[in-house]
Design brief:
Number of domains: 2
CATH architecture of the largest domain: 3-Layer(aba) Sandwich
CATH class of the largest domain: Alpha Beta
Strand order of the largest sheet: 3-2-1-4-5-6-7
Helix content: 25-40%
CATH topology of the largest domain: Rossmann fold
Strand content: 15-25%
Number of strands: 13
CATH superfamily of the largest domain: Glycogen Phosphorylase B
Length: 382
């Protein structure tokens, strides 16, 4: 029996978490003799109930107030760590490193331990310091430039991993630039997408009613990273030019209030519409006319791949992985990260919807055979 522990933060409604569900299903499809523990920093999240029942869910453990009397040294250590975090402002990666010391090691030993998240989060440190396994893998969902990769603490921990998996060539190049000696143990594996499940969910999900005007869709957290403020500015520019359309956003996040204020200030309440979190956004995706991804940075955007699966014309900003997904003006459009560039390309598509639809129809999604995708995981195990 092959024992694997995968560590992530929380099963929120995000691209990394959606691909993790596909990752788990594909692993089970490739090997029956596998036991997977999914270790979460926090329980819950919109996708928590979608974790397969054959996956054993673990939680990073730290002593609670009720247990302090029975574990006084651990409780004191936790108080000191929390105080240290409050007193001095530290870079995010350092905060995660300090926070990881709160948690107790997992008692089991595994064949493989995987940190499945961004390169600067608690799981990176937890896998190295708190799990016993002969093979430890860093699964990178972002570039070093955008995730404090030059931080010396983070740099030191990255070098401790036996293998590094990058979700795009851009992420790979970014990592190897800082870690040239790790080139032989670093490889690229694009995020897994189950196109059959996406098409099935598209048939089952809520759909847009056909309107007189084109429908634009964006899927993503309402966060600075996803660039929805740029989308609102682009929307205002296009409306001023006289175009008629609706722009919907599936997602939730800490920028909702700011976005609502911006939408109201630009009188876009009837044009730019926030739908909130949608556990199944694929019916909307299947019935939109144009998909737009206005992100400031990505590792390898999941939503744009899902739009490809459903044959949608896609406009994306110049983020990591974009040029690996789309041939410029052949299977999509890649624009600079600015509201002006977004508005210009959206306006062109609205003027040439038939041509845009033909470009969307050219989309092809192809991944590696699963045996090849995962084979490296166990090829070096005894």
């Amino acid at each position: 029996m092959l024992k694997i522990c995968i560590v992530t933060r929380k099963m929120v409604l995000g691209g990394v978490e959606r691909t993790l569900l596909s990752f788990l299903a594909a692993l089970k499809e490739v090997r029956d003799d596998i036991h997977i523990d999914l270790c979460l920093q926090q329980e819950g999240g919109d996708l928590y109930d979608l974790i397969p029942d054959w996956v054993c869910i673990r939680r990073m453990y730290s002593v609670t107030k009720d247990q302090a009397l029975y574990h006084p040294l651990q409780a004191l250590r936790k108080l000191m760590i929390c105080a240290r975090l409050r007193i001095a402002h530290k870079p995010y990666a350092v905060q995660c490193w300090i926070s990881s010391a709160i948690y107790s090691p997992l008692p089991e030993e595994y064949d493989i331990a995987i940190s499945y998240h961004a390169p600067n989060t608690v799981p990176v440190f937890f896998v190295i310091d708190k799990i016993r396994a002969p093979q430890k893998i860093l699964w990178l969902h972002g570039t070093m430039e955008e995730n404090d990769g030059k931080n010396q603490v983070l740099f030191h921990y990255h070098e401790k991993f036996d293998q590094v998996v990058c979700v795009s060539k851009t992420v790979y190049d970014s990592f190897i630039k800082l870690h040239p000696a790790m080139a032989e143990r670093t490889l690229v594996r694009y995020n897994l997408i189950d196109d059959n499940i996406i098409r099935h969910m598209a048939r089952e999900g809520k759909k847009f009613l056909k309107e007189r005007f084109p429908i634009i869709l964006t899927i993503g957290r309402l966060s600075y990273q996803k660039g929805l403020d740029l989308a609102v500015e682009a929307c205002a520019r296009i409306v001023q030019e006289g175009y008629k359309f609706k722009w919907y956003v599936c997602g939730e996040g800490d920028q909702r209030i700011n976005l609502e204020e911006k939408i109201k200030a630009k009188c876009l309440e009837d044009v730019f519409i926030l739908l909130g979190n949608q556990l199944n956004p694929y019916g909307y995706l299947a019935t939109c006319d144009l998909y737009v991804q206005p992100s400031r940075f990505e590792g390898y955007c999941t939503a744009t791949v899902e739009a490809k699966v459903l044959g949608k014309p896609v406009i994306t900003t110049e983020v990591s992985g974009a040029r690996e997904q789309f041939g410029e003006n052949e299977t999509g459009w890649i624009v600079p990260i600015s509201s002006t560039a977004l508005a210009k390309q959206i306006s062109w598509c609205l003027d040439h919807m038939e041509e845009a639809e033909k470009i969307g129809a050219k989309q092809i999604w192809e991944g590696l055979p699963l045996e090849q995708h995962f084979g490296f995981l166990w090829e070096n195990l005894q």
